[in-house]
Write a structure and sequence with these properties.
By secondary structure, the chain is mainly α. It has one domain. It contains 11 helices and no strands.
Length: about 240
């Protein structure tokens, strides 16, 4: 089944390559928002102490730290207040692309119609995943896999409340977290190639391919007429 999902994702990408790559680039830029920056000052400690005694240098350093903090806060707020809306919109577009249906760029902003519901739900989603990773890496991965469907559910069912979307995703993913993780791990080779190309391959192939495969997993799990029940044996097909 995993092989089928990847094959259909490749076919969908090849069918409308540039529109898919283009809209993924736009969505990525919109979801990224304002990124923070950081810097470091290295050198001899005594020299640094001398510099810190200089009032003008201290003022400059405090200004840099203040700007860095402000930009980071703006970036976080942007992600919560707008980036997550785009995440729900691109989820719907990826589903359409996988199904070889027509999509439009304006659909990236479809979540604005139900802004409060989406922002609130995605804030809870982010909180739960963050808490999971604060416990340790493995619990964080488990929570992220369990809530994988939330953006898709929010996009497909406008009547679904936020907590219902979270609960439904968790229930739906029972017995399937390992399968989804296996799908992600099947791209390990592509990820290594992406690293070797300094991320360029992620823009023009790996990223869109993995995104469509993820959407395809959701589609085959819930919507395909001929969908089979996913089991651990599916990875050996």
């Amino acid at each position: 089944m995993i092989g089928m999902v990847k094959e259909r994702a490749r076919a969908a990408l090849n069918l409308r390559y540039w529109p898919i790559v283009g809209i993924e680039l736009i969505a990525g830029a919109l979801m990224g928002g304002v990124s923070g920056f950081s810097g470091s000052v290295s050198g001899n400690n005594s020299r640094m102490n001398e510099l810190m005694e200089n009032p003008q240098f201290r003022t400059i350093m405090l200004a840099i730290l203040g700007i860095t903090l402000a930009v980071s806060v703006v970036g976080i707020l942007y992600t919560f207040l707008f980036g997550n809306v785009i995440k729900v919109g691109i989820s719907g577009i990826r589903l359409k692309a996988y199904r070889k249906e027509t999509f439009r760029i304006v659909e990236l902003f479809s979540g604005l119609k139900q802004y409060k519901r989406i922002v609130g739900t995605m804030a809870l989603y982010t909180l739960f995943v963050t808490l999971g990773f604060m416990c340790f890496i493995v619990p964080g991965i488990i929570v992220a896999l369990g809530l994988f469907e939330v953006p898709y559910l929010l996009n497909e069912d406008p009547s679904l409340s936020g907590m219902d979307a979270i609960r439904r995703s968790w229930e739906n993913m029972k017995g399937h977290k390992g399968e989804l993780f296996g799908l992600a791990m099947s791209f390990f080779g592509w990820i290594m190639l992406t690293i070797l190309t300094l991320g360029v391959l992620a823009i023009f192939y790996t990223g869109p391919y993995m995104a469509l495969a993820e959407a395809g997993y959701y589609h085959e799990l819930h919507h395909s007429v001929n969908a089979e029940t996913f089991t651990a044996d599916s990875f050996h097909e």
